[in-house]
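Letters spell out the chain; the tokens describe the backbone. To illustrate:

===
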Amino acid sequence: RQDLHRHTLGCIFNLVDLHLYMGNPALALPLSEECLRGHQQTLGEEHAHTLKAMGLLSDVHDDMDNHGEALPLARRVLEAQRRTLGNEHDETQISINRVAVILSRMGDKEGALPLFEEHLRLSRRTNGSEHPRTLHSIINLGRTYFQLGRFGEGLPLLREAVAGMRKVLGEGDPETQRAIEDLENCEATADDDDDNQEEEEEE
């Protein structure tokens, strides 16, 4: 009976994931809450499947722009996974990135920065520099540096990401095209900033 219940919870989890993929977080929310309750009751608070369900609920709230609800859940998952799985585990790395992304969307770029830096270090070490997850991590960190005005650190990362995506995903891939657009916008902004500084120096 418990195995059947776990199978049902797995089906609910997959349905939540599908609703998120299709852009329907409002439909996903009650199912995600039910999924987490079921895992907590049958497996306990820190079981790996329970933590995944909690992370998924955080994702649902984040997609609905309920960042204040998403962040405590994401932090709770990350803390438990660091303790039970270790920092280099794949699920822990996902959670590090999740917390960083939520903080960034809330406008806390300074808070997100060390987590984006950690995520990239871990992903390079465990996945390699040209793994798609690593390439997305490079973009996230590059964007964050740029948003903080640290153009000299951000631009090399964005250029690395574009080169890697062209090689791994291909020029025509939508992810590659978005990365190229990001890079071009950042290069233009950096050039404008250089021009403004030169004008100030001349005055």
